[in-house]
């Protein structure tokens, strides 16, 4: 996937939460909260997979750099808080707009410029700070973490392929799962086959 190669989409985990981070330059034009055509292409894959998942809490977070809103946009955005929240809402409506999505498990927040990932004194740092993050709370406190594994597989499907295999020892010599195969407990596994690009899951 072009956008993964360019490191514009990043996946990370923290405290049983899966973070999917998209840099704003592939989603929005400067000073705008309308998703671009290229951004819709990236979000479409994410939307299709998230609709298959039930029982998880989803938060869409908007972030900006520390550059003040241009005066020509003041009629719509008073501050970076407004812009970050509006962008998060745009992603929410596009990704989770299906009527089948339970609205009680979705939230939106705009952090403006106040949770930077990088130093705003450089253009590269500012670019990293302009982002939208979809946070999936994948497991209850004290749980097994099984939800996290399931979500990682769903995200992997966006950038590669997941197949079921059988291996008696770790992932050595994986065999396809076929009807009539005798399975020992713990031996059926999921095997990830990367896509044509370099896939990085941090």
Q: What's the overall average pLDDT, rounded?
A: 74
Q: Give me the number of helical elements.
A: 5
The amount of helix comes to 25-40%
Strand/helix succession = HEEHEHEHEHEEE
Shape: elongated
Main β-sheet, spatial strand arrangement: 1-2-5-3-4
The parts where pLDDT drops under 50 for at least 5 residues are: 1-7, 195-202
The beta-strand count equals 8
Strand content: 15-25%
In angstroms, what is the radius of gyration?
19 Å
Distance between the termini: 17 Å
Structural class: alpha+beta
Largest sheet: 5 strands, mixed
Describe the model.
The radius of gyration is 19 Å and the shape is elongated. It has a 5-stranded mixed sheet with strand order 1-2-5-3-4. Strands 7-6-8 form a 3-stranded antiparallel sheet. By secondary structure, the chain is α+β, with helices and mostly antiparallel strands. The protein is built from 5 helices and 8 strands. 27% of the residues lie in helices and 24% in strands. Helix 2 (37-50) runs antiparallel to helix 5 (146-159). The protein starts with a helix and ends in an 8-residue tail after the last strand. It has helices at residues 2-5, 37-50, 80-95, 123-129, 146-159, and strands spanning 9-14, 17-23, 57-63, 106-110, 131-137, 160-166, 175-176, 188-194.
Relevant terms:
single chain, alpha+beta, 27% helix, 5 helices, disordered C terminus, elongated, 3-stranded antiparallel β-sheet
In short:
This protein is of the alpha+beta class and 202 residues long. It has helices at 2-5, 37-50, 80-95, 123-129, 146-159; strands at 9-14, 17-23, 57-63, 106-110, 131-137, 160-166, 175-176, 188-194. β3, α3 and β4 (106-110) form a beta-alpha-beta unit.
């Amino acid at each position: 996937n072009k956008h993964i190669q360019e490191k514009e989409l990043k996946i990370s985990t923290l405290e049983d939460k899966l973070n999917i981070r998209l840099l704003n330059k592939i989603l929005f034009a400067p000073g705008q909260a309308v998703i671009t055509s290229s951004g819709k292409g990236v979000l479409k894959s994410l939307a299709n997979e998230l609709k298959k998942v039930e029982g998880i809490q989803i938060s869409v977070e908007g972030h900006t750099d520390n550059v003040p809103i241009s005066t020509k946009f003041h009629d719509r955005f008073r501050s970076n808080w407004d812009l970050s929240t509006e962008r998060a809402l745009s992603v929410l409506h596009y990704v989770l707009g299906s009527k089948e999505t339970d609205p009680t498990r979705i939230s939106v927040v705009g952090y403006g410029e106040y949770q930077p990932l990088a130093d705003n004194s450089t253009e590269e740092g500012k670019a990293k700070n302009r982002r939208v993050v979809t946070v999936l709370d994948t497991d209850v406190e004290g749980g097994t973490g099984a939800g996290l594994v399931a979500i990682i597989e769903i995200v992997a499907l966006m950038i590669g392929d997941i197949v079921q295999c059988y291996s008696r020892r770790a992932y050595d010599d994986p065999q396809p799962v076929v009807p009539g195969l005798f399975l020992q407990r713990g031996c059926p596994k999921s095997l990830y086959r990367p896509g044509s690009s370099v896939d990085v899951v941090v």
